[in-house]
Design a protein that fits this description.
Elongation Factor Tu (Ef-tu), domain 3, 29% strand, single chain, Rossmann fold, 6-stranded antiparallel beta sheet, 5 helices, globular, 314 residues, alpha/beta
Protein backbone atom coordinates (compact mmCIF):
# COMPACT_ATOMS: atom_id res chain seq x y z
CA UNK A 1 0.00 0.00 0.00
CA UNK A 2 1.28 3.52 -0.86
CA UNK A 3 2.49 5.60 2.07
CA UNK A 4 0.93 8.72 0.55
CA UNK A 5 -2.41 9.57 -0.99
CA UNK A 6 -4.35 12.55 -2.37
CA UNK A 7 -7.03 14.49 -0.51
CA UNK A 8 -9.17 17.38 -1.78
CA UNK A 9 -9.63 20.18 0.79
CA UNK A 10 -11.69 23.25 -0.24
CA UNK A 11 -11.35 22.21 -3.86
CA UNK A 12 -7.56 21.92 -3.66
CA UNK A 13 -5.58 18.70 -3.95
CA UNK A 14 -3.30 17.96 -0.99
CA UNK A 15 -0.69 15.18 -0.80
CA UNK A 16 -0.72 13.55 2.62
CA UNK A 17 0.56 10.51 4.42
CA UNK A 18 -1.87 7.68 5.07
CA UNK A 19 -3.16 7.90 8.61
CA UNK A 20 -3.27 11.72 8.63
CA UNK A 21 -6.63 13.31 9.42
CA UNK A 22 -8.11 16.00 7.09
CA UNK A 23 -7.45 18.56 9.83
CA UNK A 24 -3.75 17.64 10.01
CA UNK A 25 -3.40 17.84 6.24
CA UNK A 26 -5.07 21.25 6.03
CA UNK A 27 -3.02 22.63 8.93
CA UNK A 28 0.23 21.33 7.46
CA UNK A 29 -0.47 23.01 4.11
CA UNK A 30 -1.40 26.33 5.70
CA UNK A 31 -4.92 26.17 4.25
CA UNK A 32 -6.52 26.79 7.62
CA UNK A 33 -5.36 28.42 10.85
CA UNK A 34 -4.98 26.57 14.11
CA UNK A 35 -8.14 27.10 16.24
CA UNK A 36 -8.27 28.41 19.81
CA UNK A 37 -7.90 25.64 22.35
CA UNK A 38 -5.18 23.89 20.34
CA UNK A 39 -2.91 24.25 23.30
CA UNK A 40 -2.60 23.46 26.93
CA UNK A 41 -0.60 25.38 29.53
CA UNK A 42 2.45 26.91 27.92
CA UNK A 43 3.19 26.28 24.27
CA UNK A 44 5.00 23.89 21.98
CA UNK A 45 5.18 22.90 18.34
CA UNK A 46 2.31 21.16 16.61
CA UNK A 47 2.55 17.39 16.95
CA UNK A 48 3.25 16.78 13.26
CA UNK A 49 4.29 18.70 10.17
CA UNK A 50 3.77 22.17 11.65
CA UNK A 51 6.30 23.71 9.29
CA UNK A 52 4.97 25.27 6.12
CA UNK A 53 5.24 23.68 2.70
CA UNK A 54 6.70 25.53 -0.23
CA UNK A 55 3.67 27.72 -0.92
CA UNK A 56 3.39 29.14 2.63
CA UNK A 57 5.32 32.40 2.87
CA UNK A 58 7.92 33.28 5.47
CA UNK A 59 8.04 30.05 7.41
CA UNK A 60 10.04 30.26 10.63
CA UNK A 61 12.31 27.55 11.97
CA UNK A 62 11.77 27.10 15.69
CA UNK A 63 13.57 25.09 18.33
CA UNK A 64 11.14 22.90 20.29
CA UNK A 65 10.98 23.36 24.08
CA UNK A 66 11.73 20.51 26.45
CA UNK A 67 8.15 19.39 26.72
CA UNK A 68 5.45 19.33 24.03
CA UNK A 69 2.53 21.19 25.55
CA UNK A 70 -0.04 21.09 22.74
CA UNK A 71 -3.31 19.21 22.91
CA UNK A 72 -5.36 18.27 19.86
CA UNK A 73 -8.99 19.42 20.08
CA UNK A 74 -11.75 16.87 19.64
CA UNK A 75 -13.68 19.20 17.32
CA UNK A 76 -12.42 21.76 14.85
CA UNK A 77 -13.87 25.27 14.77
CA UNK A 78 -15.74 24.90 18.06
CA UNK A 79 -16.39 28.19 19.90
CA UNK A 80 -14.05 29.07 22.75
CA UNK A 81 -15.76 28.59 26.11
CA UNK A 82 -14.39 29.39 29.56
CA UNK A 83 -12.56 26.38 30.92
CA UNK A 84 -14.15 24.85 34.02
CA UNK A 85 -12.41 25.63 37.29
CA UNK A 86 -10.04 22.94 38.48
CA UNK A 87 -8.34 22.43 41.84
CA UNK A 88 -4.86 21.04 42.25
CA UNK A 89 -2.35 20.52 45.05
CA UNK A 90 1.38 20.98 44.69
CA UNK A 91 4.64 22.03 46.29
CA UNK A 92 7.32 24.61 45.63
CA UNK A 93 10.16 22.89 43.81
CA UNK A 94 12.33 25.77 42.59
CA UNK A 95 13.13 29.34 43.68
CA UNK A 96 15.54 31.17 41.38
CA UNK A 97 16.56 34.86 41.39
CA UNK A 98 16.18 36.42 37.94
CA UNK A 99 17.31 39.89 38.91
CA UNK A 100 17.79 42.13 41.95
CA UNK A 101 14.01 42.36 42.48
CA UNK A 102 12.64 39.34 40.62
CA UNK A 103 12.18 35.67 41.44
CA UNK A 104 11.24 32.68 39.31
CA UNK A 105 9.16 30.25 41.38
CA UNK A 106 8.17 26.79 40.17
CA UNK A 107 5.28 24.83 41.67
CA UNK A 108 5.02 21.14 40.78
CA UNK A 109 1.47 19.82 40.82
CA UNK A 110 0.30 16.31 41.63
CA UNK A 111 -1.82 16.46 38.46
CA UNK A 112 -1.59 18.71 35.44
CA UNK A 113 -3.81 21.81 35.28
CA UNK A 114 -5.18 22.58 31.79
CA UNK A 115 -4.55 26.25 30.91
CA UNK A 116 -4.26 28.46 27.86
CA UNK A 117 -1.27 30.85 27.70
CA UNK A 118 -2.22 34.07 29.47
CA UNK A 119 -4.65 32.45 31.88
CA UNK A 120 -4.30 33.11 35.60
CA UNK A 121 -4.72 30.90 38.65
CA UNK A 122 -5.56 31.50 42.29
CA UNK A 123 -2.61 30.26 44.34
CA UNK A 124 -2.83 29.68 48.09
CA UNK A 125 0.62 29.12 49.59
CA UNK A 126 0.13 27.57 53.01
CA UNK A 127 0.07 30.27 55.67
CA UNK A 128 -0.63 33.10 53.18
CA UNK A 129 -3.73 34.65 51.67
CA UNK A 130 -4.65 33.44 48.16
CA UNK A 131 -3.40 35.58 45.29
CA UNK A 132 -3.97 35.55 41.55
CA UNK A 133 -0.81 34.69 39.63
CA UNK A 134 -0.09 34.11 35.95
CA UNK A 135 1.66 30.86 35.02
CA UNK A 136 4.32 31.22 32.38
CA UNK A 137 7.49 29.46 31.20
CA UNK A 138 11.02 29.72 32.47
CA UNK A 139 12.94 32.48 30.73
CA UNK A 140 14.60 29.81 28.57
CA UNK A 141 11.15 28.63 27.44
CA UNK A 142 11.00 25.35 29.36
CA UNK A 143 8.23 23.97 31.58
CA UNK A 144 6.94 20.51 32.33
CA UNK A 145 3.27 19.63 31.91
CA UNK A 146 2.69 19.42 35.66
CA UNK A 147 4.65 22.60 36.49
CA UNK A 148 3.44 26.13 37.04
CA UNK A 149 6.17 28.75 36.63
CA UNK A 150 5.65 32.19 38.20
CA UNK A 151 7.64 35.44 37.97
CA UNK A 152 7.35 37.46 41.17
CA UNK A 153 8.64 40.93 41.99
CA UNK A 154 10.09 41.54 45.45
CA UNK A 155 8.35 44.39 47.23
CA UNK A 156 10.58 45.16 50.22
CA UNK A 157 7.67 44.29 52.51
CA UNK A 158 8.60 41.21 54.56
CA UNK A 159 4.91 40.42 55.07
CA UNK A 160 4.21 40.27 51.32
CA UNK A 161 4.12 36.94 49.52
CA UNK A 162 7.08 37.44 47.12
CA UNK A 163 9.42 38.44 49.95
CA UNK A 164 8.58 35.28 51.91
CA UNK A 165 10.31 33.01 49.39
CA UNK A 166 13.57 31.68 50.73
CA UNK A 167 12.52 32.42 54.33
CA UNK A 168 8.97 31.41 55.29
CA UNK A 169 8.38 29.71 51.96
CA UNK A 170 11.07 27.17 51.07
CA UNK A 171 11.26 24.08 48.85
CA UNK A 172 8.43 21.55 49.40
CA UNK A 173 6.14 24.28 50.77
CA UNK A 174 2.50 23.18 50.13
CA UNK A 175 0.40 25.10 47.60
CA UNK A 176 -3.23 24.85 46.54
CA UNK A 177 -4.12 26.00 43.03
CA UNK A 178 -7.49 26.84 41.49
CA UNK A 179 -8.00 27.87 37.90
CA UNK A 180 -8.01 28.94 35.20
CA UNK A 181 -9.15 32.50 35.83
CA UNK A 182 -9.06 35.67 33.73
CA UNK A 183 -9.88 36.66 30.16
CA UNK A 184 -6.40 37.65 28.98
CA UNK A 185 -5.56 34.32 27.40
CA UNK A 186 -4.16 33.89 23.88
CA UNK A 187 -6.58 33.73 20.95
CA UNK A 188 -5.02 32.76 17.60
CA UNK A 189 -5.92 34.61 14.43
CA UNK A 190 -6.64 38.12 13.26
CA UNK A 191 -4.45 41.20 13.00
CA UNK A 192 -1.15 42.27 14.47
CA UNK A 193 -0.44 40.99 17.97
CA UNK A 194 0.73 43.86 20.22
CA UNK A 195 2.10 42.61 23.55
CA UNK A 196 2.84 45.04 26.39
CA UNK A 197 4.38 44.05 29.74
CA UNK A 198 5.40 46.06 32.78
CA UNK A 199 7.79 44.38 35.23
CA UNK A 200 6.66 40.79 35.96
CA UNK A 201 3.65 41.36 33.73
CA UNK A 202 6.07 39.77 31.29
CA UNK A 203 5.02 36.37 32.69
CA UNK A 204 1.69 36.05 30.81
CA UNK A 205 3.07 38.02 27.84
CA UNK A 206 5.97 35.55 27.45
CA UNK A 207 3.56 32.64 27.54
CA UNK A 208 1.38 34.23 24.85
CA UNK A 209 4.31 35.32 22.68
CA UNK A 210 5.96 31.91 22.65
CA UNK A 211 2.68 30.19 21.82
CA UNK A 212 2.03 32.60 18.97
CA UNK A 213 5.41 31.92 17.38
CA UNK A 214 4.54 28.22 17.18
CA UNK A 215 0.87 28.46 16.25
CA UNK A 216 1.07 31.49 13.93
CA UNK A 217 4.67 31.97 12.79
CA UNK A 218 3.64 34.38 9.99
CA UNK A 219 1.59 36.66 12.27
CA UNK A 220 3.04 40.12 12.88
CA UNK A 221 4.06 40.59 16.51
CA UNK A 222 5.21 43.71 18.39
CA UNK A 223 6.52 43.33 21.95
CA UNK A 224 7.12 46.15 24.43
CA UNK A 225 8.56 45.49 27.89
CA UNK A 226 9.23 48.03 30.62
CA UNK A 227 10.69 48.21 34.13
CA UNK A 228 11.46 50.95 36.61
CA UNK A 229 15.09 49.91 36.80
CA UNK A 230 16.96 48.55 33.74
CA UNK A 231 18.50 45.91 36.00
CA UNK A 232 15.00 44.42 36.31
CA UNK A 233 14.75 43.66 32.60
CA UNK A 234 15.31 40.01 33.42
CA UNK A 235 13.66 38.67 30.28
CA UNK A 236 16.51 39.12 27.79
CA UNK A 237 16.96 35.34 27.14
CA UNK A 238 13.26 35.16 26.25
CA UNK A 239 13.53 38.18 23.95
CA UNK A 240 16.59 36.69 22.26
CA UNK A 241 14.54 33.61 21.41
CA UNK A 242 11.70 35.71 20.05
CA UNK A 243 14.11 37.76 17.96
CA UNK A 244 15.62 34.59 16.52
CA UNK A 245 12.17 33.40 15.42
CA UNK A 246 11.56 36.56 13.42
CA UNK A 247 9.88 39.03 15.78
CA UNK A 248 11.06 42.35 14.36
CA UNK A 249 9.78 44.83 16.95
CA UNK A 250 11.15 44.24 20.46
CA UNK A 251 11.26 47.39 22.60
CA UNK A 252 12.81 47.64 26.07
CA UNK A 253 12.01 50.63 28.28
CA UNK A 254 13.17 51.73 31.75
CA UNK A 255 12.10 54.73 33.82
CA UNK A 256 15.45 55.24 35.49
CA UNK A 257 18.55 56.19 33.53
CA UNK A 258 21.03 54.54 35.92
CA UNK A 259 23.01 51.84 34.11
CA UNK A 260 20.62 51.88 31.17
CA UNK A 261 22.10 49.93 28.24
CA UNK A 262 22.00 51.51 24.78
CA UNK A 263 19.14 49.27 23.63
CA UNK A 264 16.88 50.35 26.51
CA UNK A 265 14.77 53.43 25.86
CA UNK A 266 13.83 55.95 28.56
CA UNK A 267 10.29 55.51 29.96
CA UNK A 268 7.36 55.63 30.25
CA UNK A 269 6.44 52.41 28.49
CA UNK A 270 3.30 53.75 26.82
CA UNK A 271 5.30 56.49 25.08
CA UNK A 272 6.99 53.85 22.91
CA UNK A 273 3.98 51.89 21.69
CA UNK A 274 3.36 51.82 17.94
CA UNK A 275 0.38 53.60 16.46
CA UNK A 276 -2.43 51.15 17.07
CA UNK A 277 -4.70 49.93 14.29
CA UNK A 278 -8.33 48.88 14.39
CA UNK A 279 -7.27 45.36 13.44
CA UNK A 280 -4.69 45.03 16.25
CA UNK A 281 -5.09 42.59 19.12
CA UNK A 282 -3.49 44.03 22.27
CA UNK A 283 -2.51 42.12 25.41
CA UNK A 284 -1.22 44.20 28.32
CA UNK A 285 -0.09 42.96 31.73
CA UNK A 286 1.29 44.88 34.68
CA UNK A 287 0.38 47.55 37.20
CA UNK A 288 -2.89 49.48 37.14
CA UNK A 289 -1.45 52.66 35.60
CA UNK A 290 0.19 50.84 32.66
CA UNK A 291 -2.80 48.60 32.01
CA UNK A 292 -5.23 51.52 32.19
CA UNK A 293 -3.18 53.69 29.83
CA UNK A 294 -2.91 50.93 27.22
CA UNK A 295 -6.63 50.21 27.48
CA UNK A 296 -7.36 53.87 26.71
CA UNK A 297 -5.02 53.85 23.69
CA UNK A 298 -6.56 50.64 22.38
CA UNK A 299 -10.10 51.96 22.82
CA UNK A 300 -9.21 55.16 20.97
CA UNK A 301 -7.89 53.13 18.04
CA UNK A 302 -10.77 50.66 18.08
CA UNK A 303 -8.40 47.76 18.77
CA UNK A 304 -9.31 44.73 20.85
CA UNK A 305 -7.55 44.77 24.23
CA UNK A 306 -7.17 42.01 26.80
CA UNK A 307 -5.80 43.38 30.10
CA UNK A 308 -4.14 41.43 32.91
CA UNK A 309 -3.75 43.36 36.14
CA UNK A 310 -1.13 41.93 38.47
CA UNK A 311 -2.41 40.92 41.90
CA UNK A 312 1.01 40.92 43.60
CA UNK A 313 2.58 44.38 43.15
CA UNK A 314 5.12 46.51 45.03
Amino acid sequence: MSARCSLVVNGKSVRISTGDTPLEAALADGMIAAPPGLMGQGSGPLPRRAQARSHRADAVKLTPPRAGLIERPETFGAPVRPAPAQKRAGTVTQITPLGPHTLEVVVTLTKRLALEPGHGVVAAFEGFEPVTLNPTLRVDGSAELNELVFHLRLTGDRTALPDAFGEEIVLDHPVKIKGPVGRGYYRPGGGRLVLVAAETGFAPIWSIARAARYIEPAREVAIHVGARDPLDLYMRPSLDWLRATGVGRLVLVADRSRQRPPDVRPGPLTAHLPSLRTTDVVHVAGDASTVGAVEVLAAAAGARCYPTLLDVQP
